[in-house]
Amino acid sequence: MSEYKLQQNEALIMKNERIAQGKSSTLNDELLLTNLNLIWISKGLFGKVKTIQRYPINQIKVFEDQPQIFF
Predict the structure, then answer these.
(1) Residue 20 lies inside a defined structural domain of this protein
(2) What gap in Å lies between CA 35 and CA 37, rounded to an integer?
(3) Structural domain includes residue 6
(4) pLDDT per residue as tens digits for the range 5-24
C-alpha cells in the first residue's frame, strides 16, 4: 500500500495494484477497498505517487443497483 496510511479503525479488504485510468494502457495505479474508504492511488510512469483520492464508503451513492462515484 504505497503512501496511504490506514486509520486506526480501518482494515484493508481488497487491493488491486494494476489499475488504468480511462483509456490509458499503463496499469500503474492502485485501488484499495477498506471497511471505511475506497482509495485510488494515481502513480506516474516510474511508480511515483502523484495523487491519493479517498472516497468514504458511506458517501458512495447507488443508482439502479450500481455504485456511483464521480471524479
Answers:
(1) yes
(2) 6
(3) no
(4) 999 999 999 999 877 776 66
